[in-house]
Design a protein that fits this description.
Blueprint lengths: L28 H14 L5 E4 L5 E6 L48 E5 L3 H19 L13 E11 L1 E8 L10 E9 L9 E8 L1 H4 L4 E8 L8 E2 L7 E2 L9 E2 L9 E9 L6 E5 L2 E6 L11 E11 L22 E9 L6 E3 L5 E4 L6 E2 L3 E3 L2 E7 L6
Antiparallel strand pairs: 1-2, 2-3, 4-15, 4-18, 5-12, 5-16, 6-7, 6-15, 7-8, 8-9, 8-11, 10-14, 12-13, 13-14, 16-17, 16-21, 19-21, 20-21
Helix pairs in contact: 1-2
The structure holds 2-acetamido-2-deoxy-beta-D-glucopyranose.
Length: 390
């Protein structure tokens, strides 16, 4: 089962995704032992345990004892409580529509929320990464025009970028089967090419292969070697250092209603000019960061930056992307990414993107994307579509 049957649609930007048609997730004995070890690291003693309205369990763990500090490259790492870099010029812009107040986890100060995981979560994540490496190898260029890449995105390639700030309009696409994924992301990498490619990415997604439910989740992903041996979603492996007692990777939140109330998250990913760490802010709060140690010094600047919608499906028909409606419906009808800014110097001001960036759509009959237009919340990129036979 598996690889050969993956003839449907998938997106390279959702790294680490594997779906086995009959739901069997297989790993080797060595991997199993490794996962047992990892599980022990991830499930630390909790100061307090919180069960959310969507039945997720978060353990509030002492910030200085969080799982990521067990990473061998972080042996001497001191948790950064704040980043001085964060100046007035980088203030988060107002959201159009509702933000996400009330969707924190609410751990006590001095602790951070760590989503409790079972072995099956790790097996799935591991199995994903195996498929990804095999399918990715067939496609030398992630933006190549092949029928299995389904994304609608805006790309700033070969431009040195040190940070990205945008408002992500959030939806909860209804998937056709539980082995599909649909979401929207900001993605930064060292660029195309070899196995040393480093990636950091933040967004929202309905991702049952990882989360085992149909909710929309805040998620993040990183790798230091193109997904070969390092990296994972959220904190499914040690790496991302959580700072906020409240906003948590993996947390569920509600989606917008088509032509109704709109939900947005203000997402900022930036390289701190002093420490070199890549940090993440959501709605003005420091969520956490990827320490530079993880990237072996190789991730000094991002050379490949994408914003947009992504779907994955092991077979046809493909799921909806964004609101399930095309870009032409505008804000309220189509999903958008707004207030699009980036940093073109380390620790520099956030400036509006160049509106001449390239828009890519892999399957125009299923999904569409607009060129960015200037709205009251800044440069706005609309994308999405109903999916179907793509
Ligand atoms: C999620 O939705 C799919 C169909 O889209 C359904 O088959 C599955 O049972 C749902 N999963 C849960 C956990 O509700």
């Amino acid at each position: 089962m598996g690889i050969k049957e993956i003839i449907g649609c998938y997106s390279v930007l959702f790294l680490l995704i594997i779906v086995d048609a009959d739901g069997v997730w297989s790993i080797s004995k060595e991997e199993d032992m490794e996962l047992e070890k990892q599980l022990k690291i991830l499930n630390k003693p909790a100061v307090k345990t919180i069960r959310t309205d969507s039945d997720q369990i978060f353990d509030c763990v002492d910030i200085h004892k969080q799982p990521s500090l067990d990473h061998p490259l972080l042996k001497n790492h001191k948790v950064q409580m704040t980043f001085d870099d964060f100046s007035e010029s980088m203030k988060d812009r107002p959201l159009k529509g509702k933000g996400l107040s009330g969707f924190g986890v609410g751990c006590p100060i001095g602790t951070v929320p760590i989503r409790r995981v079972e072995k099956e979560d790790l097996i799935r994540a591991k199995a994903f990464s195996k498929l990804h490496m095999k399918t990715y190898a067939k496609n030398s260029h992630p933006l190549a025009d092949t029928p299995i890449h389904l994304s609608a995105k805006l790309a700033a390639n070969d431009k040195p970028i040190y940070g990205v700030a945008s408002i992500l309009n959030v939806y909860k696409p209804t998937l056709i089967s539980p082995d599909q994924v649909s979401g929207s992301i900001i993605y930064l990498s060292t660029g195309f090419g070899d196995d040393s490619k480093s990636v950091v990415s933040v967004g929202w997604a309905v991702m049952p292969p990882v989360y085992r439910d149909n909710f929309t989740h805040l998620f993040a992903y990183w790798t230091a070697d193109n997904g070969k041996t390092t990296g994972c979603y959220d904190i499914l492996c040690p790496g991302f250092v959580q700072q906020s007692p409240d906003f948590a990777l993996g947390r569920t939140f509600p989606g917008s209603n088509y032509r109704g109330s709109q939900i947005g998250i203000n997402v900022l990913v930036s390289k701190d000019s002093k420490s070199g760490d890549w940090y993440v802010r959501v709605n003005g709060a420091s969520v956490g960061y990827w320490p530079k140690e993880l990237f072996k010094g190789a991730f000094e600047v991002a050379k490949e930056v994408n914003w947009g919608g992504e779907i994955f499906s092991p077979r046809q028909p493909c799921p909806p992307m964004g609101s399930g409606h095309f870009d032409g419906e505008g804000i309220g009808g189509a999903c958008y990414i707004s207030g699009m800014q980036y940093q073109t110097a380390a620790g520099g001001n956030f400036v509006d993107i160049d509106p001449a960036l390239k828009a890519f759509v892999d399957s125009p009959q299923c999904y569409k994307a607009s060129m960015p237009s200037y709205e009251s919340t800044g440069y706005t990129f609309l994308f999405g579509g109903p999916g179907g036979q793509c």
